[in-house]
Hints:
Blueprint: E1 8-10, H1 31-45, E2 48-54, E3 63-70, H2 77-96, H3 113-118, H4 124-129, H5 155-171, E4 177-182, E5 185-190, E6 195-196, H6 197-202, H7 206-213, H8 218-225, E7 230-233, E8 236-239, H9 254-263, H10 270-274
Antiparallel strand pairs: 1-3, 2-3, 4-5, 6-8, 7-8
Amino acid sequence: RSSYACCYFVLPCCFFDFHGKYSRRQSKKTQYREYLDFVAQVGFVCGFHVEEDCLRIPSTKRVSLIGKSRTYPPTEHAVIDKQITHFINSRQTCAVATCDSRVGVNHEDHSDGLCEEAGSELPEDETETAGTVWMPGFQPREKVEQIRNCASLPRDFVDDVVLNVANLLLNATPQKSCSNMQGGNISTWNQGESLSLKEVAEHLNKETLKKLKSEYGGLQTLLKNNHQVFEVLNGRVHIRDWRKEKPPSKTKPEVKRRLSAEAFKTRLCWFFIHHPDGCSLPSESCPYAHGTEELR
């Protein structure tokens, strides 16, 4: 709609309409095929010859739609713009109330009931808004999208939460200790208890929870980001015992093996510094540095 000279390429992925989640209307088609047809219909209503292509990419969603040429001359641009306005408004109506099954299209003929209806005389209010306000109430996302996956939180704040949660698990009763036989001697290492995310959250102060709620995934994301210390399974938080971790697979892709080797001893071991029993692994086996002298 930007201009008559505009062309477009789109790779449909997530199933969304103009005003929210796309609602299925045809059970005879797969959800993906139905959505592709809907996106193709949008292109047709906007006056494009819509072409379809399949990309050579490693994805299940690899069908692209391209609009390179128009179905009408430049002199009819204003009429088509009114048709687009009517189409947008009709989709908005469908989003508010349950819409009829009027959207079925095929590649031979993308014109359906909505397109035929769009060619009819428009109500006065729609005619007035055509070309000025494309979609009343639509809020586009910011040009610079804020990172909200806990990665941008201050390091001292994250370290404080990690230490608090770890102490909570270690001091929970009854303590769960893991024994390990090494050289004939039994060494006991406190792995602490497991608690639900809700139980953990109940022990954090209001300011911390408020800060975490502004992030996607909140507390769970922060704990999962700290993979060295925690393991989150089925909504429960555990202290990670590195003795139970599987050794690197020989079949692992070369790139991943190289990255893993390059990261060896590049960060300090949290357990060596903070855990009351130290690290559960000897220095030569731990992927993290036992002291600054081991850092690479």
